[in-house]
Structure formats: C-alpha cells, structure tokens
Amino acid sequence: MIPILLGVTLLTFVLFNMLMKDPASRFAGRHATVEQLATIRAELGLDRSLPEQYFLFLKQIVTLEFGRSWSTKQKISTMIDDGFSATLCVTVPPFIAAIFVSIALAMATAYRRGSWFDKSMVVACLAFLSVSSLVYILALQWGLAYKLGWFPISGWDPSWTGRWSYLILPWIILFVLSLGVDILLYRSVILDESYQDYVRTARAKGLSGVQVYSRHILKNALIPIITNVVIEMPFLITGSVLVENFFSIPGLGGLLVKALNESDLPVIKAMTVIISIAYMVFNLVADLLYSAADPRVRLG
Amino acid sequence: MVKFAHRLSGVIAFTVVAALSFSGCTKKVDDKDTTLTVPLVVNLKGLDPIQADDLYSNMVVRNVFEGLYEYHYLKRPFTLQPALAESMPEVTDNGLTVTIKLKKGIKFQDNACFPDGKGREVVADDFVYSFRRLADPKSISNGFWIFDGKIKGLNAWIDAVKTGKADYKTPIEGLQAPDKHTLVIKLVQPYYQLNYVLAMGFASVVPREAIEKYGAEFINNPVGTGPYMLEKASDWIRNSKITLKKNPNWRGQTYPSEGEPSDQAAGLLADAGKALPFADTLVFTEMIEDQPRWQNFMKGNLDFAVIPNDNYDSAIKDNKVLPELTAKGLSLDNSTAVEITYIGFNLKDPLLGKNKDLRRALSLAIDPESYIKTFDNGRGIPAQSPLPPGLEGYDPDFKNPWVQFNVAKAKEMLAKAGFPDGKGLPEFTLESLSSAKDRQIDQYFASLWSAIGVKIKSSSNTWPQFQEKIKRNEAQIFPFAWGADYPDPQNFLQLFYSKNFSPGPNDTRFSNPEFDKLYEKSLTLPSGTERTELYKKMRDIVVEENPWIFLRTRKEYRFFHAWVGNFKWNHIENAMFKYIKVDPKKRAELKGKL
Amino acid sequence: MTVATANASTVAVPSSRNSLWWDAFRRLKRSRIAVISFVVIVAYVVIALLAKFGVIFADVSVPVGAQYLPFSGDHPFGTDVLGRDVLGRAIHGAATALSVGFIASGIALLIGITLGALAGYFGGWVDNLIVWLYTTVDSIPYILLIPSLTFVLGRGLINVYIAVGVTSWVTLCRLIRGEFMKHKGRDYVLAAEVLGASHLRRIFRHILPNVAHLGFVQFGLGFVSAIKIEVILSYLGVGVDPSTPSWGIMLDDAKLELARPFWGNLIAATLFMFFLILAFNLFNDALRESLDPKLKNK
β-pairing, B36-40 with B281-286? Predict the structure, then answer.
C-alpha cells in the first residue's frame, strides 16, 4: 500500500506541477503587476525547490491536512467532506441495484443463449450504451420532472429526510446508464463459465439448467464479477459530473472537474490521493472476497 | 421465483408511491413568503468581499457588505450616491486630499465575534483597517489595484509588511481617521475614479473582530453592514444554495423617487419612498446547466432568469416576447452590458506587432454582425471602439473603418501587408477557452480567416492556463472581453497604456507615446468635455493602430415573473436585490398554474 | 456459399498450428451475423477512408447554408451552428472514432495482455511489480489521469491515442491476470508442464487461447469506451483538436442545441456510434464463440 501511495503521489505531483508554469498568475487578476506576482508566489510556497514542494505534499498527506483551495479559499478537507455524502447517496443505490439486476439479466440471456431474447437484449444493451448520457438526462429531466412534475427539476437538501426526493431521478438515470455495460460484460463472463467441464458434470448429475446456473456457474463467475465491480468503484466517489451538474447536486464529481478546469492544484492532489487510498481499500476487500468466492485463490 | 417476483413488485410499487409522495410540485405555495430566489450560474466561492472577484460572488457578497458609495438604482448614466458615507466626498488640496464623512449610528450585523453578540457602530478606523487588509500581501486579493500606487504611503507600508517591519498599527500617511466619523484619504496624484472604486465590493467595510475571530474562515462567516446577512453558517449549503435573511440592524433606506424618463411608464417608480428591503429572504441557488435552470424558472421556482441562447427562439420572435409567455405573466428586462468583446493581438509578436496592415486584414475578414447572429441570437451591438455604449464619449454614429465585413478589402490589405492570398504567412495560433461555445467561436473565426488565406491553429485552455499565457505574453491571438469595473471609459483606455503591460491589464502590450501622453493627461482631469475630447483622441489612436479586433457588446435578456416588481438590471453593480419586490399573493395564485 | 466453404474445409485440413484459427474463421464465415457485422465495419472503414482522402464530403469545415437548417434531402441531418453539413461531419467523425478506437485499444490490448499474462502466470515478484504498476495507474481515476496526460501532452489526435491507450489497459490486465491465475493450476496446463512445454509455450499456446476471448471482448468494450472517453475529453475541452471532426465534439455541441430544438448533431453522432458499436460487439461475440476451443466440437 505504501509503495503504491508513493507511486500515486509521485505521478500526481509530476503531472500536475507540470500543468502550469506559473500558477500565481491566476490569483493576480487582470490588474496584476510583476511585483504582486512575486509576492503571491512567495505566499503560496511556489518559489521553493521541487523536492521541497514534493516533501511538503507528502507531509500534507501524512497529516491529512491539505490546506485550502486556490480557487475557493475553502478548506479542502471541508470541501471533500461536504461532497462525500451527496456523492455516495447519488451513486451507491443505483450501483448496487445495477449489479444485481444486470447479473440476473445476464444469467437469463446467457441461459437462453442465441434466442431472440438474447439477441434483442444484446442489441438493447448496445443501444443503451451508445446513446450519450446527456440524452437520458435531458429527456428524463424534461419529461418526468418538468412536464409531468413527478420529481423536482433539480436541487439538493442536505438533511437526511429531505434529500430523497431529489435523488430518485438521478438514481434512475445512473441505473439505466450502468445497465447496458454491465449486462454485456456479465453475460460474456457467465457464457464463458457455461462451457466449463464442471457444468457438463453437473448436468450429467441430472441438475436442471436453472439449478446449474444458480448454483455452479454463478459461483464460479463471481471472481470476474467482483473484479469488474472493484474496477467500477472509483466511480462511486468521482460520481457523474453531468448528473451532478444537471441536478445541482453538490458532489465530488463536480468538485473534481471544477478543480481541473481551474487548475486548482491543491484540490486535485488531495482528491487524487484520497480516491487512491479508498481504491486501495476496495482492492483489499476484493482480495478477501476472491478467496471467499474461490478457495483456490490464496491471499498473496 | 414467483415469491421473489411478488416481493420485487412490492418494492417497485413502494418506490413509485414514495417517489410520488415526495415530489415537490404538490407543495402549497405560501402566500406570505416574500423570498426572492436568484439563480447563480457558477458555484459561489466565498463571502469575503476582497476575494469576490467574479460577478457571481459579487452578486451575493454585496448584499451582506457595503462600502462608502453605491450606484443609484434607476438613474442612467450610472450615478453614485452615498451609502455608508453621509455625502459625496469633499476634495481639497488640488484633488490630493479627499475627506469623507460617515453616517452616524451605522451598526455591523449581530455576530458572535462581538462582545455580547451585538453589532457595534462602524467608525472611520474600520475603513482604514479594511483598506489595509485589501493591501496586505497575505490576503492575496486581486482587488488591490484599486488603490495601488494611488494612496500616499500605502505601497511603502506593503513593502514594510513583507519584511516584517510594519503591521496594522503602523500609521499610513494617506489613510487617516481624525475622528470617529471622518476618513481622510491623501492621494499621490489626483484620482478621479476614486469615488467609483470606493463603490466596488473590494472597498467594503469589515469588522476587525470578525477577521480576528474567524481568520481564513471569514469566507464562511461574513459580517458586514448590508441589508441582508448570513444568519448562521449552515444557511450556506456549499455548491447548492445560500439563504440570506434581512438584517435587523440595517441603516434603512427608501426606494428612489426619480430615475430615467422611461422608468415611470415601466412602473418602476410606483414604490417610491417605501422602505427597503422588500424581500425578507434572499435565496441564491446554484444551477450550472442552462436547461434545468430555465425549466426551474418556467415552473416559478426562480423569480427571474437570463434566457439561454437555445431557448431564445421558443420565447422571442422579432424581438417580441411570444404570446404564450406573456400569457403566463412573463416580462422581459433588456439591458446592454458595459463591456467589449474583442480579439487581442500580441503586439510583441514579430509579425503581428509590426504589420498594421496585417492586423487590419484580419479585422476586415471578421463579421461582427454574423457573429452576433450566430452566437447571441442577434442580442448585441457591434463594437467599434474602446469606448463602450452607455459611457462618456460613446458615439453611436462612430464607425470604425476596420470593423466591417469586407473580404475583398481584407484580401487587398493582406496583399498590402506583403502576403497576397496568405502566401508566406505562417500558421497563427488562436488561444482560447475550452468550453463548447468557445470552441465553436474558434472554428467560426478560423473559417472566416481561411476565406482570405490565413491559416489558424486553435489551442484551447482552462481559464487559469489562458490567463497564464496572456500574463506571460505567450498568447498570439486571443478572444477576450473586458467588463467595466466602473462606468468611466478610463477603465477601458487603461488597457492600452504602456505602463500597464501584462501581467497588467494591457494584455496586447500596446505601446504608443502619443496615447500615453493623452492618457496621463486625462488622469489629471475631472469628468467634463475636456476629458471627453481626450478620450475620443485616444479612441482614434486605438482604432488606427488596431491592437484589437472589436467584436461586440452583449445585450442581456432577463425574464421575470408577474409577481416580481421593480426589476431593472444594473450592469455595474449586479447585487441590487434590496429594491426588488415579490408579491407573495400573486405568486401563490400563479405559480401553481405554471 | 456456406456449403462451399464447409466442403473446402473438409478437404484442406491445415497444420495443427493453424487449425484453431482456421476453424474459427470457418465458423465465423458460417455465422450470418458475423458476416453482416464485418461488412458493416468494413463499410465504416471504407467510408471513413473515402472521406479522409477527399473522395466524398471533401471539406466539411465550410458552411453550406444557414445555421441549424432542418433535415432535408441535401442535408439529411441538417446543418450545425456554423452552417456546416452535419452528415459530412459525422462521416469524418467516423474516421476519428475508428482511429481512436483501433489505435488506443490496440495499445491497451498489447500492454494489457502482455503484462496480465506475465503477472498471472509467473506470480512472485513479477506479479508484485506489475500489480504495483497497474494499481498505481489505476488508483488515479481516469477522469483525472487522462485529462492531465492530454494537458501535459497537448491537445490533438495522437495525444488522445496515447493518453487513452496507456491508461486503459488496466482492466484487461487485471482480467487476464485473474484468468491466468485460475488457468495455470488447471489440469491441461499441468499436463503440458509434465510434457515439458516451456513457459512461453504454456503462456501463449496453452493458456492464452483459453483466455484470448477476454482480450477480444475487451477490445470491443475498449473500442466503445475509447469513443466514450473521447466524448468526456471533449466535455473537458482536452480532446482532439477542435478542427478535427469528432462525434465527441458533436455530442458536446448537442448539449447547447437540444432545447432549440436542433437534434441533428445528437442523432447523427448517436446513430453512427450505435451501428459501429453494434457491429463491433456482434462481431466480437461471434469471434469469441468461434475462437473458444471448448466449442470446437459443437
């Protein structure tokens, strides 16, 4: 974990410190003077040597004190804290729902492989993932919220009781968005398993197709499925920028894109490191799940 | 399996029912609620007036903080009136000493930073403190230019602060408070724009107690003297919305009784003499995307909104609001911004800088009329000169000979410049921003220039990268805009003064000794015909030299609902919400029908 | 045609080295879906090349009429904000998309399979190193990594290839590694080891064919995601050069136009994308099935 973290910090530092030659100019505004620029550079510690700046960056990570955003002047820890619960509320429910629904549908399509049901599912999934997410957002927001008035058009309520009404439409959209990709992937994973020898053995034992699928194939397909779930997990934190922007949800996705657009280096660095740490934790969990799902995989 | 399906259908039914019962539209509209809801197009950053350098932060911050002067709500051309000052300043000593009397009994908003939590009286020392804070290098405010090099001893104080030889107790010759209600500013040279900059948000008064208590967290705990206040920190849900409540300590003010001639007919004087502010609560909601913002407005969740380009055709035809919108009670406020959009040339570029004919050829190839039609639905005025509409010296009949779409003449100039049909010209780089619209505009310029044989490579940047390239003089050709800080054309003409070279505001690095002489002279003159004549001479030099391709000045179209009264947008000061009135009964009646 | 090929294949049985792929090819040709999809892909390539070399829709950067013209016979998808023909831009966009898809997922495929196979097969320090490498790359969300790479490299088509390619191999690498871990303990590999097969032989001849379909599926998915990443990059303003026609840029434009309503950019880009992705996926599927050794006797 430590070596990966070092790798991540180094990569982040190199990339983003190369991004801007002179970040101070952004603070000075349009009436800047050369003198002011120098003052700002000194205030921000940009006049120090690169190794020194990198060391300070590492120190921030160890102390979890990332300082303040260049753009908003807000405390970065507060900014991330603010966005965290909003983002997770938006992303987690559709993420989990999509996993279960797409596994079920993938099993069904794989089971009836080659049938019209299978073929039309594949085409539908592809249609789903070809259409830009923008279309779902615009169409559903306009139709369900504006025209029919079933949901608020956009907005946010930080209280736990008030926020749900704002969440349902984003959930539907994110659910639909992840379905297409997931079903296709899981279908191929399950199909792959269905050709294995143990399936034939199980069939020979006289198990029915449904039994074979639900007991044997699903169990063996779990490893690639878990792998895919872990791969998608950073999305839970970065969220969907478009959904956040269109529904005015104060999440981390918007924060990240804004930071990128504003070259807000302290925020970018902090987010990168935090997401990386979270991701590493997910991976540890996934490794545990691997060995639970398949005893042949030993923890390395 | 059947059991599962049954359970699943139960869950779905529950979700649908829950969704329907949650949906906000069934909520009854309160017929006593005078809340004014204002859309913000970008996320609000912070509430410190010396950091509020963008339009949208200013829009919020200026309701909480006030300065010595403010703009009259209705009068045009823009006119100042005293805010915290008792009267307009008294200028003596050949314009070098400015004495300002403060209103007595002005109180800061109640806040925990004061002993016993009650806001104390504002005194002249608070202004001295606030101006020092603006100048303090530790503040990193980009609003300091308003006093930079103008006030005696202030720049020396900054240098001393940097080396630790001075602090807030060190006296500054040019900033003095001889008594509790008198502020004396001593200037290095006459500064006829001083009143204007004192009306800017950067010059707002802040209490020392709050800065000492909250430090950097002052951005979340603002304490000012304005008509509205942030009651508790949790009223600001960052990146979502902020709720400001009426300030019970406010000095009080009444709605103006005079304005432009057209204001009477527009019903803008009906409330003359009534006590401000009208709305008890101001809510600013952040809506980045055009479509949900417009839908929220159409549903009555926002009291007013700028119409997005893409909804324009569904609302306005031949410059008239369509009947289906007027039937809903929507009205239009149509105002011209005080700004100029232009394409800047880097005059330090060996080719562009030395070849006036080349710049002229590039200018003649651009069609401002079609630009306005393509990108603004026709809402704009082609810009002719550095003097924008609405300000001193603007002449609607003035025509810039190089602002006209004339391909033949452009080709002729290109040949005269030594590059017939663009032969021998290297590819130019157009630096711009990376949004979809900026990208389209780039392509538009590129196609117009390619028609005369000039090749363009476009390079897109984030806003900070773009600024950085311009500040470092690395941008070759760049579309940019200047919005007025205050309604004096000097604010635009300074962009061509050679001592303001980038990183200062002269981002083309235009340098002309004749212009510099006229500019310096104009600074020593108060407003009047003599100065206006100088401005016109400067204008002619800029037009002749073509450091910019003049594009346009935008017109902004804002729609507001039938229950909103006294709506008149001010492009110099956009936080005028204390004047806007909401009729709660009418809203309760109409909103449900939208 | 199907009959003829079937006959031919029974006559000329190639050497065992090629039989797997030959069989696959034979089966592929029998699948009507595979043939149709392949024809569609080839059609895209041909049209894209024709447009690229100026045979059709030579110059799509010039206006052909007023802005936002409705759909018509001359301009099936209307004209865009600058009065340019949307169909022409969509066709040129196909060239951009195909090149991004092929080159970027090609780079990803190469890196992913090689590293995944090495890590999964050898384990130990090789595995540790490769896992470290991909975890580091992968721990930085692509939404940060790709834009920052293109920021550093600069905007442009080639930089998009590189940025997408060198960042999107991780998924495949992980999957291949997982499969190798699973397969290396299976009987057929152990048997090959007993028979004295070398490491390389076991990796490439024995295990890889059993997991190669993952590579193909991933290539297809990678192709799709490369196109989608290009859209995201356009949204962030760091994608291809603005003068390069691209579906990503068209969709980005669409955001400003849907309320107008002008749906030309959206519909054209979506349709072009959908049929290409559909063809790719169906072809992939068919290829996967025909390549799967366990299906040989079916």
Answer: parallel
* Alpha-carbon gap, residue B136 to B170, rounded angstroms: 13
Give the closest residue to A90 by CA, choosing from A199, A190, A168, A202: A168
Query: pLDDT of B237-247, one tens digit each?
Result: 999 999 999 99
What class has domain B66-220? Answer: alpha beta
> Which pTM was predicted?
0.87
Q: Which residue of B has its CA nearest to C62?
A: B447
Sign for the CA dihedral angle at C158, C163, C166, C168 comes to negative
How far apart (Å, rounded) are the C-alpha atoms in residues B23 and B225? 39
Is the distance from CB of B438 to CB of B417 less than 8 angstroms? no
Q: How far is CA A234 from CA A87, A276, A278, C36, C174, in A?
A: 11, 8, 8, 37, 16
User: B79: closest CA among B488, B563, B549?
Assistant: B488
DSSP state of B165: S
Selecting from A43, A74, A246 the residue whose C-beta is nearest the C-beta of B289 gives A246
Put simply, whether B215 touches A (Cβ < 8 Å) is no
Which chain A residues touch C129 with a CB distance below 8 Å? none
A45 lies in which domain range?
A: 2-63
C175 close contact with A: CB closer than 8 A: yes
**Under an 8 A CB cutoff, do A224 and C231 touch?**
no
Q: Which fold has domain C15-57+75-295?
A: MetI-like fold (1.10.3720)
CA dist., res. C220 & res. C4, Å (int):
30
Mean pLDDT rounded to a whole number for chain A: 83
Both A112 and A231 in one domain: the answer is yes
Residue A93: CATH number of its domain: 1.10.3720.10
Dihedral pair phi/psi, residue B45, rounded to 5°: -95, -65
Prediction ipTM score: 0.88
3-class secondary-structure state, position B241 = strand
Flag whether A101 is in a domain. Answer: yes
Q: CB burial class (10 A; 0-12, 13-18, 19+) of residue B344?
A: buried
Q: Which residues contact B133 (CB under 8 A, 6 or more apart)?
A: B50, B139, B206, B211
Lowest mean pLDDT among B188-197, C109-118, C218-227, C255-264: C218-227
The answer to whether the CB atoms of C221 and A185 lie below 8 A apart is yes
Portion 21-40 of C in contact with A at CB < 8 A: none
Q: What is the CA radius of gyration of chain C?
A: 22
Distance CA C235, CA A242 (A): 10
The length of chain B in residues reads: 594
**Are A158 and A53 members of one domain?**
no
Q: What is the pLDDT of residues B548-566, one digit of tens each?
A: 999 999 999 999 999 999 9
Does residue A46 fall inside a structural domain? yes
Instruction: Report the largest interatomic distance among the alpha carbons of chain C, rounded to a whole angstrom.
Output: 74
Q: How many CB atoms lie within 10 A of CB C223?
A: 25
Residue C288 one-letter amino acid:
R
Rounded CA separation B209/B515 (Å):
46
- The answer to whether the beta carbons of residues C174 and C116 sit under 8 Å apart is yes
Chain A residues with CB-CB distance to B219 below 8 A: 72-74
Overall residue count recorded for chain C in this entry: 298
State the virtual CA torsion across B458, B464, B469, B472 in degrees, nearest 10.
170
Residue C46: Cβ within 10 Å count: 11
What's the distance, Cα to Cα, between the start and end of chain A in Å?
Answer: 14
Q: What is the CA radius of gyration of chain A?
A: 24
Furthest C-alpha separation in chain A = 85
Structure tokens at C147: 């834009």
Is the pLDDT score of B180 beyond 80? yes
